[in-house]
Amino acid sequence: MAIMKKKQEPAELKIPVHVGIIMDGNGRWAKKRGLPRKAGHWQGARVFKTICRHAKARGIKYITFYTFSTENWKRPKEEIDSLMALFVKYFDDVNELIEEDARMLFIGDRTPLSDELKGLMKDTEERSKNCDKITIIMAINYGGRDELTHAAKLIAEDVRDGKITPEDVTPELIQSKLYTADIPDVDLIIRPSGEQRISNFLIWQSAYAEYYFDNILWPDFSKKDLDKAIEVYSERNRRFGGV
Fold first, then answer.
1. Is 200 among the catalytic positions?
2. Whole-number Å distance between alpha carbons of 195 and 215
3. pLDDT tens digits, residue range 174-209?
4. Which one of 24, 146, 214, 225 is the catalytic residue?
5. How high does pLDDT run on average in the chain?
6. Which of 31, 99, 154, 221 could serve as a FRET partner for 39 with CA atoms 20 to 30 Å apart?
């Protein structure tokens, strides 16, 4: 009598603690459909909420979305105005996520943003500070080089004021001056749309991150696409400089 072999279970997935997503391809998605670019941004915003919920269901603890870069100010004024209006609209979705125990944080230079938007960001962070199912981080007017420059200025001020000496400057000190000071380094960065570059996103924090590039445009990105990225990440051997 033949002996039936027990079906092998798939290896347990390694879930990244912190995922970064570059939400790219909104404009191309709209252009393919003969729509204005802002239509792509609004569709991308709908995907944002879906992916946040799925990330929480998969056990991801931190997820950072590259929402608006320091370089995006070069875009046409009409598109920028539409994006800023969209960010205000985002807070309707954000309120739903807070009710589902998601903490919200915002990183980047808030100085040029409207008072309305800055007020919403501050209020949202305060209201969600005790939520602990997932931390959702939105990078608005964010750039990796800008963040490091900001950190360097803070350290220079501390040296000038006699609080520290140049010899006190360590990677740990620099980390403490970043926008993401209390957030773990990113494990996996996902960029849809076919582009294969990081575009000034989480430069310091992604020193040992794994990268996952996909040709799908962000407005078409689905829960299955996030699952696929996690599966690929799970197969990687992260050595952090070791063997």
1. no
2. 8
3. 999 999 999 999 999 999 998 999 999 999 999 999
4. 24
5. 92
6. 99
Per-residue pLDDT for 27 more than 50?
yes
Smallest CA-to-CA distance from 19 within 242, 176, 171, 221 is with 221
| Res 9 pLDDT > 90 | no
- Give CA–CA dist 51/34, Å, rounded: 26
Q: Is 24 a catalytic residue?
A: yes
Quick check: helix, strand or coil at residue 25?
coil
Residue linked to tokens 């602990």: 132
- 3-state DSSP assignment of residue 57: helix
Q: 18-143+184-234 belongs to which homologous superfamily? A: Decaprenyl diphosphate synthase-like (3.40.1180.10)
Quote the pTM value: 0.91
Cα-only R_g, the chain: 20
Apex 52 CA angle, 47 and 53, nearest 5: 105
Mean pLDDT of 146-151: 98
Active-site annotation holder among 72, 158, 185, 220:
72
